[in-house]
Amino acid sequence: MLLFADAQYTSPYAMSVFVALTEKRIPFELKTVDLVAGANRGGEYAARSLTQRVPTLVDGDFTLSESSAITEYLEELQPEPALYPADLKTRALARQVQAWIRSDLLPIRQERSTYVVFYGPSDAPLSAGARDAAGKLFKAAQALLAHGGEHLFGAWSIADVDLALMLNRLVLNGDEVPPVLREFARRQWDRESVQAWVNLARPPM
Amino acid sequence: MLLFADAQYTSPYAMSVFVALTEKRIPFELKTVDLVAGANRGGEYAARSLTQRVPTLVDGDFTLSESSAITEYLEELQPEPALYPADLKTRALARQVQAWIRSDLLPIRQERSTYVVFYGPSDAPLSAGARDAAGKLFKAAQALLAHGGEHLFGAWSIADVDLALMLNRLVLNGDEVPPVLREFARRQWDRESVQAWVNLARPPM
Ligand SMILES: [Ca+2]
Ligand SMILES: [Ca+2]
Ligand SMILES: [Ca+2]
Ligand SMILES: [Ca+2]
């Protein structure tokens, strides 16, 4: 398979698919597309990717964008090791986290872009809107982790990676984050498949 | 089951779940939460909904927010009639559309809110950013419908509703939309389950 990511390896969604492929030990080649130069909006990439975004997975003559659609595809293609919980309701809760992380908390995503995570902190303080979003994030994450376990849903799932990345926008920037969430984010960050993404060679800023 | 929607019935995501329940003929009660008054951010609703958004589905003692997680849950709970295509790759493409509609095309979602769809048109012209997003939307929708069929993926799927709603932000506002996409959006709008949502009694603005 072939996975397209952004040239700086900062896309949290490309990371999610990278981790999914790595966890499943599916061999893949990693290619990049230069979003900063707009290379995704034209030429071969735009012809291939319906949504002109990263990540895009190419599996033979099948091309698929949108990270959560890709991780669901990989799960159905090769169920083991699992990316999603086996239980119907628990799987629904993992999908809830994935969908939420991708469509809400915009002020955090804007003010703590993943450049903060992969290139270095920002010294701009959080706006009122971002502090409000952070409060909502902490409340939800604390509720999900109230069981005191290592992962969100018993065994590891792809939702752990997605939630940890959202938290790490704040943790790795030095913003205030409740200790139990800081520890969760660090634990998830230490995972081998995540470290393989973190340690990719990035071009200088 | 119990479905929470916004008090004006303008949430495209609540609509998507309403249509899913209706298509599957699962009996449900519809309740509203007043987003304008912030009723989702506190009290009983915030205690119930992890993400404090609509829609939220309550199934016995199980509570789930995020529309795409809910429609996947309903599909697994009661597979027939299907919301998603049966074929692995086609199902992935339907999920691609769902994920995309929920996380991209922000200028269209902002400048053509669903108040335009359910209450009446806006006379503000589209910004350059929204026109750019519309161009991207049209290109993708035309590619998906290049087969000339009635639905995106052979049989009807929940992705038809989601794409048609995004197109109808423009169509129903009188913005310029390619005829083949206008016709697709109108056809999907005429569907009985969609009309059941459209015809809900809305409070005056
Ligand atoms: Ca996605
Ligand atoms: Ca992680
Ligand atoms: Ca959703
Ligand atoms: Ca429709």
Would you write up a description of this structure?
The structure is a homodimer of 205-residue chains. By secondary structure, chain A is α+β, with helices and mostly antiparallel strands. Chain A folds into two domains: 2-81, 3-Layer(aba) Sandwich (Glutaredoxin), CATH 3.40.30.10; 88-193, Glutathione S-transferase Yfyf (Class Pi), Chain A, domain 2. Helix content of chain A is 51%, strand content 9%. Chain A has ten helices and four strands; from the N terminus they run βαβαββαααααααα. Chain A has helices at residues 12-23, 43-48, 67-77, 88-103, 106-111, 114-118, 128-144, 158-171, 179-189, 192-198, and strands at 2-6, 29-33, 56-59, 62-65. Chain A has a four-stranded mixed sheet with strand order 2-1-3-4, with helices on one face. In chain A, strand 1 (2-6), helix 1 (12-23) and strand 2 form a beta-alpha-beta unit. In chain A, helix 1 packs parallel to helix 3 (67-77) and helix 1 crosses helix 8 (158-171). The radius of gyration of chain A is 17 Å and the shape is globular. The mean pLDDT of chain A is 96. Chain A binds chain B through residues 50-53, 62, 64-70, 72-73, 76-77, 88-89, 91-93, 95-96, 98-100, 102-104, 136, 140, 143-144, and chain B through 50-53, 62, 64-70, 72-73, 76-77, 88-89, 91-93, 95-96, 98-100, 102-104, 136, 140, 143-144. The complex binds calcium ion (4 copies). Residues 13, 66-68, 102 of chain B line the site of one calcium ion. Chains A, B: This is Glutathione S-transferase. Chains A, B: GO terms for molecular function: glutathione transferase activity; maleylacetoacetate isomerase activity. Chains A, B: It is an enzyme of class 2 (transferase). Chains A, B: One of its GO terms (biological process) is glutathione metabolic process. Chains A, B: Its EC number is 2.5.1.18.
